[in-house]
Amino acid sequence: MNHARAERAELSDLLVRLGPDAPTLCEGWTAFDLAAHLVLRERRLDAAPGIALAPLAGYTARVQESLKADRGFGGLVELVRSGPGGVYGLVPGLDSAVNTMEMFVHHEDLRRAQRVWEPRELPADLEELFWKRVRAGRGLFLRRAPVGVVLHRIGGGVALGGAKEGPKVEVTGPASELLLFCFGRQAHARVSLNGDEGSVARLMDASLGV
Q1: Domains, the chain, ranges and CATH?
Q2: pLDDT band at residue 90 using 50, 70 and 90 as cut-offs
Q3: Residues of the chain above pLDDT 70, percent
Q4: Where are the transmembrane segments (predicted)?
Q5: Residue among 181, 207, 1, 30 at smallest CA distance from 99
Q6: What is the pLDDT of residue 135?
Q7: CA gap 111, 14 in Å, rounded
Q8: Contact 160, 149 (CB under 8 A)
Q9: Residue 62 to residues 20, 85, 116, 141: CA-CA distances in angstroms?
Q10: What is the pLDDT of residue 29?
Q11: What CA–CA distance (Å, rounded) separates 199 from 205?
Q12: Tens-digit pLDDT profile for residues 104-139
């Protein structure tokens, strides 16, 4: 089982255990909404562009609500569990290439929105994969950072992103936590920050990620 499938399975189990009304870190979304989002992005390619493109977001939201009404929470969770769906299940390697980060981030969106949680100890090869993705994608993830960002990976590795001029903030943590930080989960990533107070505050409030 690859890491994308493992995260998918654990996320599906957690969705069932917590139920449809459980909170998530995605603003305004419950576990029900998260399950519908995951099904939509894999199985409704007509609506998927609205996830990232604001002019199409209205249609995407309507499709997401229709999936909830048509499938119900249990049906959506089973579609998530049975994936990868759509093109992700047809193109060899695409599931691992795209869904490993997607499933991990949304798994943590659900875990870390609960009252009690602790970071998981992830396999070393998964941490290494996340570091490669952070380094490769830092220009995209940190493009809206208002200050320079110096990412320090615990265990070795440095990557630069954000604003090229002006003050910089050092962000230190394991690769998985740096990934969550760069995906806009700053307040919930277990990282340490070093920089002047104003720059740190601006970075924490920035809209990071894709």
Answers
A1: 3-111 (no CATH), 124-205 (3.30.1050)
A2: confident
A3: 100
A4: none
A5: 1
A6: 95
A7: 8
A8: yes
A9: 18, 20, 33, 27
A10: 97
A11: 10
A12: 999 999 999 999 999 999 999 999 999 999 999 999
Which residue do the tokens 């969770």 mark? 77
Rounded (5°) CA angle 64-109-133: 100
User: In sequence order, which residues have a C-beta less than 8 Å from that of residue 175 and are 6 or more positions away?
Assistant: 127, 128, 130, 131, 134, 153, 155, 157
Is residue 1 predicted with pLDDT exceeding 80? no
The pTM (predicted TM-score) of the whole model is 0.93
Where does residue 196 fall: left (phi above 0), alpha (psi -120 to 50 degrees), or beta otherwise?
A: beta
Tokens (6 digits) for 201: 């505050």
Q: Look-up: residue for tokens 């069932």? A: 16
Rounded-to-integer distance, Cα 68 and Cα 76, Å: 7
DSSP string, 139-181: HHHTTT-SSEEEEEETTS-EEEEE-SSS-EEEEEE-HHHHHHH
